[in-house]
Amino acid sequence: MDELGVKDPEIEFNRWLEERETILRMNKELNAKSTRGGARGRAIQSPAEGIEE
């Protein structure tokens, strides 16, 4: 692992775990904010949906 610049795998893993938990928490907060006003809209419309007959 030293060739990758990792001197202590356990410390590196703990850093990764903390970063992952932070990202998951931020995503959860972001999703809560975006759905607070009701149902979320779709980001894209399929080609068939925009066609009227």
Description:
51% of the residues lie in helices and 0% in strands. The chain is elongated and about 60 Å long.
Features:
single chain, 53 residues, 1 helix, 51% helix, elongated
How much of the polypeptide forms β-strand, as a percent range?
A: under 5%
Strand tally: 0
| Helical amount | 40-55%
Largest sheet: none
Low-confidence stretches: none
What assembly state would you assign to the polypeptide chains in this entry? single chain
Shape: elongated
Structural class: mainly alpha
What value does the Rg take, in angstroms? 21 Å
List the total number of helices. Answer: 1
Task: Return the string of H and E elements.
Answer: H
* Terminal-residue CA separation: 63 Å
Mean pLDDT value: 81
Please sum up the structure shown.
Residues 33-53 are annotated as: Disordered. By secondary structure, the protein is mainly α. It is built from 1 helix and no strands.
Secondary structure topology:
Layout: H1 9-35
